[in-house]
Amino acid sequence: MPMFQPSFSKPIPQGAEVVDRNGKRYVRLAEDGKPRLFPLTKNGRSYLRKAAVWYAKIDVNGKKKHPLSANKAAAKIMYGELVRQKEMGRAGAVDSFAVHADRTLAEHLAEWADSLRANDRDDEYVSRKVGRVTRTFTGCRWVTTADISPEPLEQFLAGLRHESPMLPPMLDGSMFTLKEVRHLLGGICDSAVAALIRRHSLAATGNGKARRYPRETVERLRTDRTKGTAAATSNDYLQAVKQFVRWMVDHERLRRSPLGLAKPVNAQADRRRERGAFDEAECLKLLTAAECSAATFRDLTGHDRRMIYLTALATGYRASEVASLMP
Predict the structure, then answer these.
(1) Ranges of the chain whose pLDDT falls below 50
(2) How many CB atoms sit inside 10 A of residue 140's CB?
(3) pTM of the model
């Protein structure tokens, strides 16, 4: 049979009725509100039932068993497409899209990461992009390219923005250790705590193991944690997934992008970090301090740093953009 529904065994539910029919034993179970008979296995401890999905037994691209559809008419159409692919392969016309269709997204993602590194992307960039795409695949329950669609992606991103993590109850006391702060913030890592403290200019005392965090600092961090992901971060998740899908299209692994309808949200309506601009007096103070500095930082003298600050102030470039400039 080119198309079939494989059988699998399941344990007999406790109290289920076992009946004999024409010398064979069956178990009677209710399915969709109606009683049905399922044959018992030889040992009599389990019963057999057919899989909901039809399968095809045909050798295409080195794979001999292909899942089709639960609908028999649709399964026949899909089987016909498999036959066409096999005949095209015999004629030497290999469909590159079909070759990649049965591969998992995890395999494609690993090769995308290699492609990013080959294009001189640094490890931090690759780790962030791959991590966000991986988290999206998990949240959307995508396994193969056929699973990719805009609806579950939009729901996943909305969940990131609106669903807050369950945090443990606040502890008593006025000062907390790093271990206690990590616990109160849902188990984030040490570096994440340090980054949040610097980002929001929050108070902390001591260094190393003696470092302590005031109650006000911890409560502020907990409040921010319950707000969900910022719109800008949600958009970065979307951008990373679209970037991966575009790479799939460019390398003939997908015929077209299925995420064309997925749009970013308005990041200006949900700003979490307000960056303050220097006034004229502050700019002059910064430039004067750099010019008068005798220290060398990252092989840059005070005069060199003043020129870099002038360039950034005049152009609005970020640090990485200034660093990319050539003489």
Answers:
(1) none
(2) 19
(3) 0.54
